[in-house]
Sequence to fold (218 residues):
Amino acid sequence: LIITKKIWNKENFLKLDKSFYLQKKVSLKRIDKIKPKIIFFIHWSKKIPSSIYRRFFCIQFHCSSLPKFRGGSPVQNQILKGIKKTKLTAFKINNKIDTGEICLIKSLSLNGRASEIYSRIERISIKMIIQLSLMKKLIFKPQKGRSSFFKRRLPSESKISLKKFNNTKKLYDFLRMLDAPDYPNAFIEFKKFKFVFNDVKLNSKKIKAKVQIFKNEK
Fold:
C-alpha cells in the first residue's frame, strides 16, 4: 500500500503493477481491508498514528541524508543552506519523527522548482518501492552521525525580504524552493497589494516569473 497526500505526476506510478494499492488518506478501515505487507508513505508531513505503525510494517521516505535535516520542509531548508545534492532515505517508522532505522538510500538532486523536485522525489520513491518489494529480506541499519532538526516552514516565512539577498541566484533559490501548487509561494507586499510569484526561471542573471496580484486583506 502506498499512501501519499498528493500525486505530482501520474506517470511516476505507471510502473506499479496491480499488487499495489494507492490512497491519499490514512484510513485504518481501508488498511484493515487491504491487509498490506508494507505501507509506504511518500510526501507525508503529518505524524503517523501509532495504531498504524504498531500493527503494520511502515516505511517512510524523507528527502535528506538522515539524521540530517529531520523534521519539516527538508527541501526548502537544504536549499537555504546552499545544498544542491542530497539523499532520499527510506526508513522504518517509529514513535519519533524521522529517527527510524534505514533500509535504502538514493541520490537526489535539488535543482529546479519545488514542483519539479517533488515530482523527482516521487519518481525515485516509486523505484525504491519496487526495489524494496522485490527483496527477500529487508536489512535495516540505525542512523549514524550528527542529527539536525527543523520545523515545518510557516506561510509567513514565504514573504520576500529583499535585504537578505545580495545576488540574483540567492533570490531565485528562495523563489524556486516555494514554487509548487498548493504551497505557500514566495510573495512580497506593497501597501494594499500582495504579489505572489510562481513558474520562476533563471536566465543568465535575470529572473522570469509569473506574478499574481491580490488585494491585501490586512
Notes: The longest strand covers residues 193-203.
